[in-house]
Write a structure and sequence with these properties.
By secondary structure, the chain is α/β, with parallel strands linked by helices. Helix 1 packs across helix 3 and helix 1 crosses helix 6. The structure holds S-adenosylmethionine. The site of S-adenosylmethionine has 20 residues, from helix 14 and strand 8.
Length: 600
Amino acid sequence: MVWRQAAGVVARLLDADGARRGGASIKTLTLAPGVAAKKVTHAVVCETLKHVPILKLVLDDAGVALSDDVVPNRRRRRAEDAERAGRGEDAGAADSSGEEENGSDENDSQRDTSDVAADEEHASVVPRSLAYVLGYEALFGAGLEPDTSSDAAGPEKRTDAAAVVAATRIVVRARERLKSALKRRLKASKHGSTEAFLLAQPGGKALAAVPTHSRHARVNLLKTDVAACELELRRVFSLSPIRDPHVPDLLVFPPGCDLHDHRMVQDGRLILQGKSSCFPAAALDPKPGWTALDCCAAPGNKTTHLAARVGRNGGVLAFDADTRRLRRLRENCAHAGAMDRAAPIVVPERGDFLALNPADPKFARVRCVLLDPSCSGSGTAATRGDYLIAAARGEAIDVEADHDVDACGSEGIGSKKTKTETASAEDAAPPPRVAAARARVASLARFQTEALRKALSFPSAERVSYSTCSVYPAENERVVAAVLPEARRLGFELERALPSWHRRGLRGRGLSDADADALVRADQFEDDCEGFFVALFSRPTPPGAAKVAAAAAATEAKAREDLEAARATKRAAADGGSGVRPVYRAGAKRRKKRAAPLFR
Ligand code: SAM
């Protein structure tokens, strides 16, 4: 079962990367609901990908015939996702990627692995990704003991299982040849160990730099508080997380601590969320009772964080353009206790944020805006496994790369490149794959700039945060620099976000040093979290505030008048028109009628 699953994930990752569709990551695929033994599958996938460069060589040397992987087409994957969503299951994706699938639908007639498995049951070739997984297990892993865990599977899975059994036989027969081939390859390359061999391959150095981050879980203040949570974790579960020094409601667990099935995660008191993904709501710091606007909200990681901050007297208007992702937002908000039927804190709405009318009265009370738009997701490359995938494909991703494209699509040169590199980069046209990636970043930057302008245009907004999980200046500092003059005309200034956080914005990207210093950056290799960016705009007196205050005063005056009128009617009814006033019980308390809140 594990090998079959792992081979499916490896095939899909290598295919997704090759087709540059994005969206698929090791985490999302190995944590998906249908996957059994998630932790083991994840480990086998990572280790297999890491060893692909040597496995390719030794499988070839040992004469193991490989057939191409056939990956389920996009439409089928969507149908599977929809089916899972229908069963109320979470696809397991974190907010980290922020990537949209941008490829075209593949050929529907393309067959998937199970069809091919039937053909190959008795064949002498092994599907490539399955060969990598089995080769890894035979040479570096737990060995090739028969895997019987698929016995209980349905007919389709049994067909796959039969293919795995057939492939395992082939690889077991080739085991000694594989071992000799490995020895010969290491000797010929003069590398003393497989590890040294892998390090010397394209992308190998980046692979060695891939960090292991702590696990973070946010305490859901709608259901508990930090102290109670810590106490229960310690007493009942013998876990002693530490409090994060920068995000007050965040707990830090050791790397590898698997909390997915933990009771407090299951009941929504703890929410698994990366540290940097908590930065926007922490920086925005909305007060209890505020109304917040979350512009690109799904799947709702930051929405539930905002909801916990504004509390049950506040509200969060959550917009997203994608129906499927919005459904997940609803589920996540319900799980977090932010969508109680009687008094929901979060009000989700499907729609294009760019098309909203900020003058619409429903936004009159919006005091803070969180904008976390689609981005390249380059800050999550390490945890997404991009480096593993790149190394498996024999490509190098430069961990130092400072890919800089301005919002107009012209390319800037990263600060870490030398002059010679600059000259040669300008002379030579980039390869099509690089050119396509740059064009995509430029297009994202245009959208992000437009979205930030929109976010700043809400008349009562006092605080606006802009964030991405990208590390490219084009999507970060340059976007801020492009809108800053207009922001200032609207009365906003850049506020120093998360003042105690050490890593600040990059200098020399169209911003003054002081402005760059107001920004927050996180580095996926040097900080204990994913790569991230936050800018915080604030203004003391939003133009809409006076209007809102006047409207609130008018509402209160009207409520008072109504109350007086109601009392007068009651008095008149009680004295029956006789003019004799009723005697009230001494000391009886009268309840003051409160004006109904506008938001709900
Ligand atoms: N803030 C989310 C969270 O923390 O879970 C992640 C947001 S994700 C990076 C970007 C989201 O923007 C996607 O869900 C996408 O559907 C949405 N989006 C993209 N363009 C949009 C638009 N024009 N209007 C509204 N939502 C949009």
